[in-house]
Design goal:
single chain; Immunoglobulin-like; 13-stranded mixed sheet; four-stranded antiparallel sheet; 2 helices; 379 residues; globular; 2 domains; mainly beta
């Protein structure tokens, strides 16, 4: 009963954004009061190209880097960081309008282990919980073994609300770049993921490896494929659950450390054990001083439209032209159109002490008051 109530509460909280609230569900055990980590917002004209050329990442400040100093070896084999044996640096990015998380993974290892066609491989393991739903997401941690067997949990439960990627660093020739924990193997292929490596060493040697990749987080990743799945919607200031571990092999059967960003070893199978990451606004130097943007919502079954200003910069005045001969100087007006129409051209102009900007959208605002006795047929 407690579990059922917990899931019901999470479902109700998930409806709050649609009702105009800003709250979002949070996993019960996640460290929501910690400062957390930052996810860099790339401009839309500077989206990282996954090609092994890492100059795209030069615009990301080091303040976004997560290093081995933020991690710990939860096997107890290492109590201190020794960068002469392993050093790790990670930056994470996102792009407004794309539901993708971009990663730059840089690592030095004194012994790179990748000569087998098996899970025995130096590994960068990440877990993404795009909606902070929390809870178990692998067959090992199914809640009631008497109700759901492990094989049933693999096909009906694993990796559905949070995803685990077991990334080979690097893979030996011919081996897949990642193991996805679950039946949703489509998650690791285009257009939902892509990757590129850069390294100059062979198995057993030391050296530095760089890797860039992206994954697409899903609120629900269906075993039946992407058509029946729901992507996690990424937007500015959203908080997500994210964590990773570096599994370091040095030519032996057992690993030489499980370096974990999470505070819990079982982060790989329980999304409540991830760390908090925030999708940050764009850095000021990458954005126009004043930039106009707006969104809208049509009230279902009416011609009433709620307009919302989404502009950036110091703004002191707003002027809307609704495309039907009427205007408004409110920041977030609500306007009711007099007739059904699909060809409205709506423009917002904003002004402030540092300049002005205009955003005009063509034929995006379409209204139809279904069943209204005074409705005028569209012509």
């Amino acid at each position: 009963m407690k579990y059922r109530m917990k899931r019901l509460s999470a479902a109700l909280l998930a409806l709050l954004p649609a009702l105009g609230a800003s709250a979002q569900p949070t996993a019960p055990d996640i460290q929501v009061r910690e400062p957390g980590f930052k996810v860099f917002q790339f401009p839309r004209n500077q989206i990282p190209r996954i090609d092994g050329d890492f100059t795209d990442w030069e615009i990301v400040p080091d303040s976004y880097a997560v290093t081995i100093d933020d991690m710990w070896d939860d096997t107890g084999k290492h109590t201190d960081t020794d960068r002469s044996t392993l050093d790790v640096k990670v930056k994470v990015g996102w792009v407004d309008g794309l539901n993708r998380l971009y990663f730059l993974y840089e690592a030095f290892d004194d012994f790179w282990d990748f000569d087998q066609l098996s899970l025995h491989n130096d590994t960068y393991e990440i877990v993404v919980d795009g909606d902070l739903s929390g809870g178990p997401h692998t067959d090992e941690f199914r809640l009631n073994p008497e109700v759901k067997s492990r094989i049933d949990a693999f096909f009906e439960f694993q990796n559905q609300h949070a995803q685990n990627y077991h990334i080979m660093t690097p893979p030996t020739e011919g081996k897949s770049w990642t193991m996805v924990w679950g039946p949703q193997q489509w998650l690791k292929y285009l257009p939902y993921a892509n990757y590129a490596y850069d390294y100059n060493f062979t198995h057993g040697q030391s050296g530095k490896m760089r890797m860039e990749f992206y994954v697409t987080p899903f609120d629900y990743a269906s075993p039946e494929g992407p058509a029946k799945s729901v992507e996690s919607r990424l937007y500015e200031n959203k908080k997500i659950g994210l964590s990773w571990a570096v599994i370091d092999y040095d030519g032996k059967k057992q690993n030489n450390g499980f370096w974990n960003l999470s505070k819990h070893h079982q982060m790989y199978g329980n999304a409540s054990m991830q760390r908090l990451f925030t999708l940050m606004p764009m850095e000021p130097q990458l954005r126009k001083t004043v930039e106009c943007e707006w969104t809208f919502t049509v009230v279902p079954g009416t011609r009433t439209v709620c307009f919302r200003d989404q502009s950036h910069g110091p703004i002191s005045s707003w002027h809307w032209d609704f495309g039907d001969g009427t205007q408004s100087d409110e920041q977030n007006p609500v306007h009711t159109y007099a007739r059904d129409y699909a060809h409205y051209v709506v423009t917002l102009t904003v002004d402030g002490p540092k300049g002005s900007s205009r955003c005009c959208k063509l034929w995006e605002v379409c209204v139809r008051d279904i069943g209204h006795p005074l409705g005028t047929p569209y012509d």
